[in-house]
Design brief:
This protein has four helices and no strands. It has 156 residues and is an all-alpha fold.
């Protein structure tokens, strides 16, 4: 029986995985909340036309599918930007959109809350991605320095 010291994932890896899963759920939920009211309320997200709402929802779903545990910082940054734009749009629509039914107002508020959580989660994930990138860069430099120290001098 062999003992593997790494049988259980590190806490940071588990937290990273849960952040990724949360981002997927939040982005897909936001896309669904954006698309569902459109057939009945074309001005659901008042500053945007229905076409732009559909395009934004498609981008949310696309970036939810691109997001994974080993994501590059660029994808994490794009997720943070999408979350920021979505939060601003949803909060604006919840505050200044034309009056509608109470249910429509609740859906707008729920969308703003979903994007607020997405913004928080994507910000944390972006910071982690940048930290991992920095650690990998330092590790590569250390490995390179160790390699060069082990090499014999070229001069006889």
């Amino acid at each position: 029986m062999s003992f593997d010291a790494r049988e259980e994932p590190l806490l940071e890896e588990v937290e990273q995985k849960s952040n990724v899963d949360a981002m997927r759920v939040l982005f897909v939920s936001a896309a669904v909340l954006m698309i569902l009211p459109l057939p009945w309320h074309k001005d659901f997200l008042a500053p945007l036309s229905p076409f732009l709402v559909i395009i934004f929802a498609a981008f949310l779903i696309l970036f939810a599918s691109l997001f994974d545990e080993r994501t590059m910082w660029r994808v994490a940054l794009a997720d943070a930007v999408l979350s920021f734009l979505g939060f601003g749009l949803a909060a604006y629509a919840a505050t200044f959109a034309p009056e509608g039914s109470i249910l429509l107002t609740i859906v707008r508020q729920a969308l703003a809350v979903v994007f607020a959580f997405a913004l928080y989660t994507s910000g944390r994930t972006l910071v982690r991605a940048l930290r991992v990138m920095h650690q990998e860069k330092q590790k590569a430099q250390t490995t390179s320095e160790e390699y060069h120290q082990q090499q014999p001098p070229l001069v006889p």
